[in-house]
Structure formats: structure tokens, C-alpha cells
Specification:
The chain has about 70 residues and is α+β, with helices and mostly antiparallel strands. About 25% of the residues lie in helices and about 30% in strands. The chain has one domain. Strands 1-2-3-4 form a four-stranded antiparallel β-sheet, with no helix packed on it. A hairpin with a 4-residue loop joins strand 2 and strand 3.
Length: about 70
């Protein structure tokens, strides 16, 4: 089911980094997210709710600068 907030997401198991692309255009890396948490997010229908309850505020994050298309 599409999310009203999340445009897409990826996970790098080697670095335990969850990358979330928001519909607003912003991209954030959530750090040290266990693969188990990523798998739970992937399996839920309500991605935005899961993100708010289980990832935001629990894992360090950094905003990823958008690439310049110039």
C-alpha cells in the first residue's frame, strides 16, 4: 500500500542504514537500524505509522543532501 508520506526506502545491511525518501523530496539516513526492524517495516501496510512509532526518535539520523542536477 502506498504511503502518503514515504516515497521510497532502501536498506544497507552492511552499514545498518535505512534510507527513507519522503514525498517532500527530503532524504534521511537512519543509522544502526537492525535488519529485523527493516524487515518489520517492509512487511507492514502502514509504513508511515511504523516509521513514526519504531524508527523516528529511536535511531540517530542525518539528512542526505539532494544531488544537484545542474
Amino acid at each position: 500500500m502506498p504511503s502518503a508520506v514515504i516515497a521510497g526506502y532502501d536498506y544497507d545491511a552492511a552499514t545498518e542504514t535505512l534510507t527513507v525518501r519522503y514525498r517532500s523530496g527530503k532524504v534521511y539516513n537512519y543509522l544502526e537500524v537492525p535488519e529485523k526492524v527493516y524487515r518489520e517495516m517492509r512487511s507492514t501496510m502502514a509504513k508511515g505509522i511504523f516509521l513514526n512509532r519504531n524508527i523516528k526518535g529511536k535511531y540517530a539520523f542525518r539528512e542526505v543532501m539532494a544531488k544537484n542536477n545542474g
